[in-house]
């Protein structure tokens, strides 16, 4: 199976670990201690390249893409291959060529503590759990700046994730050292103040920016899942973004919604779809080409307590009815493919009811979050359909 990422990708995790893509399962080095050129030509990644040249993804480094392809959805492999459609595997040797796609995470700075996230991706969670802080002052910043400058002609896509990328000042290092026509992809919770974000201001100077809004619910359900975020602030920020896009003639910026399918939004799919239409009608320029914002779905695998595959027939029957009702409204082809695969997986869960142990796990998870966020009774209020099964 072909993948160009080990030859042309660059990924930095929130703890500084260096990989060639975000799906990589093995760290190759760390930006706080290692030089990129040395790490990207080290023995581990050369073994990965040899495996791919032999016709198979590496069983350890590539195990996440191997697993995701079985879900019948696109994965990191497809993203890198699309961007590097000129990559010829048969002509490649075992050395790193050059970076075309940079997926920057830098550190875990974030103002939200989403209840399915953790301290590795959110500094807010790290504070709550009293976890050690990640290194945020890069010692070899001058070296990295030079690396970006030297490769500015080769970049084809820059992806800013996080933490919350609009709050991460290190993103300016790459944005200050790439051409204005390089497509930028941002995955943002859009819950920090855009009016004070230097990263947001800089992004508005680029020709093409894909604004991938990370949220899965609306209203009270949004605030329950995205602890620390405010629904009204989120809406205000969408308006600021829409106004900024509307002020640019022939603007190539676009929006998508990134959502994780789980117990906490499975019965509210139609509400999220309705809001995807409201964004267009209320916040975006009149020239917007679609009547709704595309929703990109991925399954929730962790924590197990809210993963749909964790439950038996009593819960699964509710999941199935909700998905079938959603598909009956007419959805995009990508959504239809995703949810059809989910239905096939849920069908196998209809053989027996949810066990008492599985219910106990969910109850403990609900109680744990109630203690963290002082919202006892909130789950029962927002999700009565599941509370009665517990």
Distance between the termini: 44 Å
What is the H/E order?
A: HEEEHHHHEEHHEHEHEHEHEHEHHHHH
- How would the global form be characterised? globular
Largest sheet: 9 strands, mixed
Q: What Rg, in angstroms, do the CA atoms define? A: 21 Å
- Beta-strand percentage? 5-15%
Fold and architecture overview:
The chain is 40% helix and 12% strand. The chain has helices at residues 5-8, 36-39, 43-53, 63-69, 76-83, 123-128, 141-150, 171-175, 198-203, 219-225, 231-246, 269-283, 313-327, 333-347, 356-373, 378-382, 384-387, and strands at residues 9-12, 17-19, 29-30, 101-104, 113-114, 157-160, 184-188, 209-214, 226-227, 254-261, 295-299. The strands form two sheets. A nine-stranded mixed sheet has the order 3-2-1-4-6-7-8-10-11. Strands 5-9 form a two-stranded antiparallel sheet. The mean pLDDT is 92.
Jot down its keywords.
alpha/beta; 9-stranded mixed beta sheet; two-stranded antiparallel ribbon; 17 helices; 40% helix; globular
Provide a quick synopsis of the model:
The protein is an alpha/beta fold and 390 residues long. It is built from 17 helices and 11 strands.
Secondary structure elements and pairings:
Blueprint: H1 5-8, E1 9-12, E2 17-19, E3 29-30, H2 36-39, H3 43-53, H4 63-69, H5 76-83, E4 101-104, E5 113-114, H6 123-128, H7 141-150, E6 157-160, H8 171-175, E7 184-188, H9 198-203, E8 209-214, H10 219-225, E9 226-227, H11 231-246, E10 254-261, H12 269-283, E11 295-299, H13 313-327, H14 333-347, H15 356-373, H16 378-382, H17 384-387
Helix pairs in contact: 13-14
